Amino acid sequence: MAPFTLKWGIVATGGIAEQFIKDLIADPALRGVSDVAHLPVAVASRSVEKAQAFIDAQVPADLRSKVTPYGSYEELYKDPAVDVVYVASPSAFHYKNSLDALRAGKNVLCEKPFTVNAKQAKHLQHVAKESNLFLMEAVWTRFFPLVKTFTKLLHEDKVIGRVHRVFSDFSVWFDPKTRPTYYDPNTGGGALLDLGVYMNLWTLLTCYHHPDNKLSPPDVIKAVQFRSAVNRGVDESTSVITSWEKPQIVCIGTASMMIDTPPECVVRVQGTKGQIIIPIHGSRPEKILVRLDDGATREYNFPIPGQGLFWEADAVARDIRDGKKEEALYPLSESVFAMELMDEIRRQNELVFPANVEYCEDF
């Protein structure tokens, strides 16, 4: 049987879009997939020339004629060949771009962070449900085979016994001269919304999804932030302590644009029998280390044949093929919860984005 082929429209042409389209056109057989495939059919940018330049640079010559360049997002939303829109614009525009695509009748995969606040996330969830369309936040790491093994080792096999503590650090130094959008509140910049998604990811996998927690929020959230000297409207470093009373776990998370995470340990989960370590890189990990108190060690390696964005795309293809409107592995309710957590972190530190960035329609 021929694979189900999902046709993609890509909105915005930055670095993440470059990585995503390369994974879309990669041979699915390289990752052991035969039931779904992907085809980019449209790219939209601020000008048709820029969209065409993106296609010329990223799409093999034999496929370029099948991809239509657009000089506006609205034109792409109207293209009947597009099954699903991948929103790759800066964080501040995720809400509007996803909302416009949904209202044009398109399924949507929106790059993380889903929105800049929980109200926007809830509105997108509402519109998708009312429109009977598929919608998902693109937290790509959630779909890695490594992550499935990580949660199995923790929650099913219980290889380190009862978990008591989690350290999660996702920090990358961004030069404000070469990466100005990260220091701009008008684009939703700052460490929390960009890097904090990964900081929180491992906390949620360990605690939110702990069998004893039953998808409950943390009982305590305490957060501190350093504002950037470049622009006081964004955080340059965020640290968070969360306490989860049901499984009795304390988590310490950090995200910073001021310094890089040490490569030997991005995540450390400690239990009564030992610890699980995820070395660099926290968004695209390829290794799990298990170190038990009795001296035993185990290493699990997960080489990635590409960037790794194709696993979330495969999940989207299967859901749309099967008529599903949400992905069971990462439902919209969890995206909303993640935004609520970041809202609380910002509230405690009185960090507010410009009104036009925080804006959400009433619903």
Automatic annotation (TrEMBL):
Enzyme class: oxidoreductase
Alphabetical UniProt keywords: Oxidoreductase
Keyword field contains Oxidoreductase: yes
Reactions this protein catalyses: D-xylose + NADP(+) = D-xylono-1,5-lactone + NADPH + H(+)
GFO/IDH/MocA-like oxidoreductase domain mapped to chain residues: 154-276
Record-linked InterPro entries: Gfo/Idh/MocA-like_OxRdtase_N (IPR000683), Gfo/Idh/MocA_domain (IPR050984), GFO_IDH_MocA-like_dom (IPR055170), NAD(P)-bd_dom_sf (IPR036291)
Catalytic activity, EC: 1.1.1.179
Residue ranges of domain Gfo/Idh/MocA-like oxidoreductase N-terminal in the record: 7-136
Family indicated by similarity: Belongs to the Gfo/Idh/MocA family.
Protein name from the UniProt record: D-xylose 1-dehydrogenase (NADP(+), D-xylono-1,5-lactone-forming)
Record organism: Myxozyma melibiosi
